[in-house]
TrEMBL record, chain B:
Transmembrane segments: 6-25, 37-55, 61-83, 90-112, 142-159, 224-247, 267-284
Localization in the cell: Cell membrane
Cell membrane among keywords: yes
Keywords: Cell membrane, Membrane, Transmembrane, Transmembrane helix
Coiled-coil features, chain-numbered ranges: none
Main localization (coarse): membrane
Gene Ontology terms for molecular function: transmembrane transporter activity
Protein name: ABC transporter permease
Organism: Frankia nepalensis
From TrEMBL, chain C:
Keyword set, alphabetical order: Cell membrane, Membrane, Transmembrane, Transmembrane helix
GO cellular component: plasma membrane
UniProt xrefs under Pfam families: BPD_transp_2
Residues covered by region (Disordered): 1-40
Main location: membrane
Cellular location(s): Cell membrane
InterPro entries, sorted: ABC_transp_permease
Record's bilayer topology term: Multi-pass membrane protein
GO molecular function, one term: transmembrane transporter activity
Species, as recorded: Frankia nepalensis
Biased composition (Low complexity): 25-40
Regions that span the bilayer: 52-72, 98-116, 123-143, 149-174, 186-205, 225-251, 277-301, 307-326, 333-352, 358-377
Protein name as catalogued: ABC transporter permease
Amino acid sequence: MSTVTVEAPGGSTTTAEPLLSVTGFTKRFGEVLANSDVSFDVRPGEVHALIGENGAGKSTLLKLVYGMYKPDSGEMRVAGEKVAVGSPTQARALGIGMVFQDLRLVPAFTVTENYALALARSGVTIQARELSRRIAAASESYGLAVEPDALVRHLSIGERQRTEILKVLMTGARIVILDEPTSVLAPTEVDALFAMVSRLRAQGFGIVIVTHKLAEVRAIADRVTVLRGGRVVLAGTDPKPMTDAELVEAMVGQTVAALPAERPTVASEAPPALELVGVSALGDRGVTALHDVTLTVSPGEIVGVAGVAGSGQRELCEVAVGARPTSAGTVRVSGRELGRGGPTAGLTAGAVDVPEDPVNDAVVPTLTVLEHMALGHLRAFLRRIGLDWGRVGRHTSDINEKVQLRMAPPHRRVADLSGGNIQRVMLSRALGRDASLVVAAYPSRGLDIATTRRTQELLLARRADGAGLLVVSEDLDELMSVADRIAVFCAGRLTGVVPAATTNRQELGALMTGGVAVPAATPAAADPVPTAETAAADGTGDETATDAAAVAKDAQTGGEGS
Amino acid sequence: MSSLAVDVLSGAVVGGTAIMFAGLGETVSERAGVINLGTEGCMLGGALAAYAATATSGSPWVGVLAGIGAGAALAAVHAVLVVARKANQFAAGLTVMFFALGLTSLFGAAYVGRQINSLDPWDVPGLSSIPWVGEILFTHDPLTYLSFFVAPAVWWLLYRSRVGLLVRTAGEHSEVLLVHGYSTSTVRYASVIAGGGLCGLGGAHLSIAYSNAWFENMTVGRGFIAVALVIFATWNPLRVMAGSYLFGAALALSPALQARGYGINQFALDAIPFVVTILVLAVLGKRTLLAAPDELRRVFETRTA
Amino acid sequence: MTEATIPAQFSPPDAATAAPPPASGAPGAPGAPGSPAAPAAESRLAGIGRGLGRWAAALGAALVVFTVLLLAKGANPFTVYADVWTSTFTNTPSIEQIFVKAAPLLLGALAVVVPARAGLVNVGGEGQIVIGAVAAGGIALAFDDKLGGGLVVVLMVVAAMAAGAAWAGLAALLRLTVGINEAVSTLLMNYIALDILLYLIYSPWKDPDGTGQPTSAELADPAKLPYLGMSAVHVGFVFALIATAVVFVLLRYTTWGFRLRVIGGNPEAARRAGLPVALLLLSAMLVGGALAGLAGMVHFAGVEYKLRTGITTNFGYIAFLASWLARHNPLSVVVAALALAAITVAGDSLQLDAGLPAATVNILMGLVLIAVLGWTARRKSGGNAR
């Protein structure tokens, strides 16, 4: 996800005895075989990447190693000794430390109090002063800057991650497992993280890093293991000589068709799908989270939104559909000013959304899929008394036919659906209708590669129909391949709007961290249509853009890979 | 004859004590993420147990222990329902309240009108002769003096001790406890039961130190006031202490005025503590909920599942 | 988080046909949710059987504990049960009493059911019942000997429902404007309502001819609810049954009911779907309060005829428990209300036959609830299918 410059010590794959080795782990949940005969090991002083799609069994494997699940069969050795890990506490005692993706820190506590939960195991008080001295000392010796007295709530994601890693080290971990550590970081923060990881490697720690970003695998990992469908399909291989196509194929088990390169310009007389003029808005904690944003999405245009997590994307999406009041400025959807009308005004004006956090913001667990389809467009199904459920049913099957996202059956309660299946409901609902504005936050979250592809096709199809789309993603490759223009946010401000076809990671990265502001570009209709040629040409400046997008470019332009 | 202000304030201190103990207990429970509407029941149970044990043993201190035990036992029922069985916290609490109401009327009938050796006021030598302050603070029963220490002690336990850290973690982000090898259930059981013990102590103060009598449903809503008090004290034991004196004052106003022959309707005065509670909550508004422990806030937000 | 990056411009796409699903049956794979509906009926029957079994076990356990407590009190549980059984269930007046008590309980329970559908906890039934009775009493004092029978009863019903709705609506407004949790505010308002009643019957409305405990003057005959046929059951029970049917239809078949269910499940989702959340919450609470107010009127004009200190005898709280017992299902509430009414009547027999305080039955009620809350149907969500 970034221009990673960290060098892996060449050929550092030592032959030392593994710190941790797992042989033949099998774990079954009901009918689902989550892990099947999985073997995996980490040696001292190496970084071992674990990659795979959603549901490939990565988290199950991590939880087995960390003692949160018990394997049905298989054995585990730590430093050669056979062990049975029954709980995270035992795992920690064996020197296994885990940095969870959603960082298990209590926001209301200080750093010291959080550390006390892990480190102060007895005694009446937590001896905060003594502990904070120890933290300061460890912070110095590992080179990880951590402020013991800060409230975790006030730390950035990157700082929290650092805090969590230092905590894990202080509990005596020799094996550090990082679960998708980069998914929430800005490119520069990723560089800092990898520098930190390299230092730990040099100090002899064994590091497992779970990721799905191929550039990172190559940048940091000495070995890579790929899981698919609960099985190891590629075991402990040096990723350097592998092409990304090989890695993707290992993950997916098939080649995935590319998005069409041709993007016809959509001519439309309609007013802009979305028009924000000088919009500011408060975040949930009452602090201004969106500052003076002016942005236009034309009909037949996809505007991507990039930024470090928490840069105002959530507020932007909510403001665009009327779900969050503005503190200044005007919002127009298809020429109609939303004003104080709230979500109703947004819906009436023709805006639909795929929310960032469906479980909290859009899903009613007790209702069925069918009822959610009705809820998305209640007014259309009203009868004299109650709702016309027959019509909702027909509408739902029409949508299913049209979007082909294999949504769960209509009678299923949403509470029983997995995250990926909930996302399918959200996507079907938003993309199956004729809306003039589609606001999609992280549309491919929780989806497998094939469905992600289908979703992107649907976004493009809506574009072709003349809808304006605002698409938020943390995946710059996705944005660069789907969007016409990319709006970049930093700390709630729009730092630039760049044409997707001619931008690159450096430029986006700089804007994401508040670098050079680029004046807002003209509406998309005037922008050049992105083509494979221009995209590939831009890729040349980016040596380490070694992930899928680059491979695709290589394949099309006959390049020889990086 | 002492001034009205001194009367009311002195009455506030002694009258607020029962609510303070209950409020402190509820604070501990809620800090761990469990709201206990059974507080009312725990107080009733504590009041009767203390009264009965005092009557039987002749020692009010045995009564105090019995009160604590009864409150803890009733809270344990709540804990089982909500922690182990994941029942709705509001419904479970009211059920416990009901259960306690029935139990105390069944077993309490025999004690109505019985005389006991109560905890009598004891003037603190020296301090009680300080003008105004002495009369307000140092002419009370021993449990009231105890409350002066219990509130800061609860604060210290929650914010400075290791156990308190675990309790607060259970209320903020219980998953973190799990990750660090602690059991959320154990922490919550302990907090709810300990909180119930404090409520029982509050009940004991009511029956063997404040009213020196037992009658059916003698707490008349004090437990519910304690629950509200904890919210507007933003889950801080020291503010609970201050708030309970506010209620004590509201309670003391009625007898103090009547003693001076003001013809104010008694029932209007009886309603004052409840009206005051609602007014204070209204004035503080939504800010209070923002200060709630995260997991407790979720209890408030999703309720009828 | 996005698990996999989609390569941007791969080889030409296979048109619009969706790619085949991944080979494995991994969790979250699209094939998983499609379980067929056929075996649903069978498992549903089995589920009902299991549910009944658990219920029986829960009730049995509650009875066992109650027996132990009676023993501890020195009463012979078997004579107590036998006496209570004969005096509660084997004579017509007692059985009629069950229906008489079930009327306000059923209405009070519906007052919990409706707000619960929107995720609100109305613990204020007690206060709303009192206020309903007070309003009916006020109308009666002013008009019961001036207007025709039918008209005064109608006026009393309207006033009681309006007053109950207002009392509950106040709690809803407090929640919507200043964020006071309604479980807390309705509880506190119960005590205020009681103090209002006491104030009225101790001074302005006090029956000058009354002796002993102060009460209001007795209702004039036209304002008393008529009996059903030759029985001692007044028409209040019919009111309650009609209310149940109306609530059932409202919740199940109207858009309003659907919208309340959305809010109950996730208020934020409701807001984003453009529902007027504040208005809907207020309406749910108003309807609940009106039902509780009606309960107060029915009990007052059907049984008590005078406002007095202990007029509600905890009906509001018992009704709250009835609603939970029935898991907020408007039809099950009828059964729950009758069951709890029977226990209440048994409590009166207990007092007469065994010399135990009437409130003793609260133990049994508490135990039943504890057993039901803890040991039956432990599903996390109560929303039944449409």
